[in-house]
Amino acid sequence: MKVFAIESSCDETSAAIVDSTGKVYANVVNSQIDIHRPYGGVVPEIASRAHVRNIQPVIIKTLEAADSSFDAIDAIAVTYGPGLASSLLIGLSAAKSLAMSLDKPLIGINHLKAHIYSVFLDNDLSFEQMCPFLALVVSGGHTSIVEVESLTSYKLLGQTIDDAAGEAFDKAANLLDLGYPGGPTIDKLARSGNSKYVKFPKCRPSETSMNLNGLDPKLCFSFSGLKTALMYYLKKNPLNGTEQEVCDIAASYQEAIVSALESRCEIALKAKTYKAFAIGGGVSLNSALREQMTKMAERNSKPILLAQPKYCGDNAAMIAGLAAAGAGIVTDENTTIDATPSLAI
Ligand code: KG4
Ligand code: ZN
């Protein structure tokens, strides 16, 4: 089965063609980073207008890249949430129109589950054979620890109660005047820095926090205090103008995020017998995270599943792949899909 998918949940307009083995025939991603950079973050109204401009060229480019036509496609898939409602609606409308005019099934896919699926793209691994596995989704909008029982059964074990890990990177970069998005720049600078230079908080939520929603606080995160700690640190210790100092601060800040992610995932990994540990989402590009999590998985005798770099950020290949593998909401003449900007997995 070959699926054509559209992803437009945030600031990437993407389309892809993937089959049920996870083989990617085309994955076109049009990033809006340059448009949002001057604002230091994604502006929803600008994002949705850019999706309107980009969606048709991206669809055409995807068919060309796969040297395919819609005749070879069995179903149309689309991200229905979570994400920015005004951005989701553009992809959703395009996918509905395609499915209707081509008389093909429409499959709605959850964006977070697709980030988890991304570790199975373009390789020989089988999703079902890896189950049950533990997954961490770390992106600009989400930080979630999930137990994956099967393609269609997921259990949220922990999540951030405020900022996402990627957001924490981006806010720090803003305070340090490093531009947007901050993650890649902090990652680069941190390689030449001393991670013990500043002692940052451990990103633990208070056990009495109202935002835990019944989840175990030991598996949850609170990143909002981290950027506040950095802000107060910089007020008290104005930068001395050397690049080394910025590298040291970046390394210390990154270490606080990575060790928080590592420690919570290790607790979850030890609590049950999982076959593997998977990480998806834009922050999984972080080199320290990849290195430390690989060591942590090794220490716990678990294979680590990391997406190829091109499938870490938002892309439609992960949406098409998960739909082709047999997950998602398949609509018929009586049902439809609405853009639901919910945080649910
Ligand atoms: O998955 P993604 O492309 O979009 C969302 O679904 O949010 O993730 C984007 C996030 C941004 O916050 C960006 O700063 C972060 O991923 N990111 C990184 C790295 N590359 C991207 N964070 C840390 N280190 C990186 N190398
Ligand atoms: Zn994402």
Indicate the proportion of strand residues: 15-25%
Give me the number of helical elements: 11
CATH architecture of the largest domain: 2-Layer Sandwich
CATH topology of the largest domain: Nucleotidyltransferase, domain 5
Indicate the mean pLDDT. Answer: 95
CA gyration radius, whole angstroms? 20 Å
Order of adjacent strands in the largest pleated sheet: 3-2-1-4-5-11
Low-confidence stretches: none
Coarse shape: globular
In terms of quaternary structure, the protein is: single chain
Q: Alpha-carbon distance between the termini?
A: 25 Å
How many independent structural domains? 2
One letter per element, helices H and strands E, the order comes to EEEHHEHEHHEEEHHHHEHEHE
CATH homolog superfamily of the largest domain: ATPase, nucleotide binding domain
* Helix-strand category: alpha/beta
Ligand inventory reads: 5'-O-[(R)-(carboxyoxy)(hydroxy)phosphoryl]adenosine, zinc ion
Helix content: 40-55%
Name of the CATH class of the largest domain: Alpha Beta
Largest sheet: 6 strands, mixed
Quick description:
The protein is of the alpha/beta class and 345 residues long.
Structural topology:
Blueprint: E1 2-7, E2 12-19, E3 24-31, H1 33-36, H2 44-65, E4 75-81, H3 85-102, E5 106-110, H4 111-117, H5 127-130, E6 133-138, E7 143-150, E8 153-159, H6 165-175, H7 182-190, H8 224-236, H9 243-271, E9 277-280, H10 287-299, E10 304-306, H11 317-325, E11 329-330
Parallel strand pairs: 1-4, 4-5, 6-9, 9-10
Antiparallel strand pairs: 1-2, 2-3, 5-11, 6-7, 7-8
Helix pairs in contact: 2-3, 4-11, 6-7, 6-8, 6-9, 7-9, 9-10
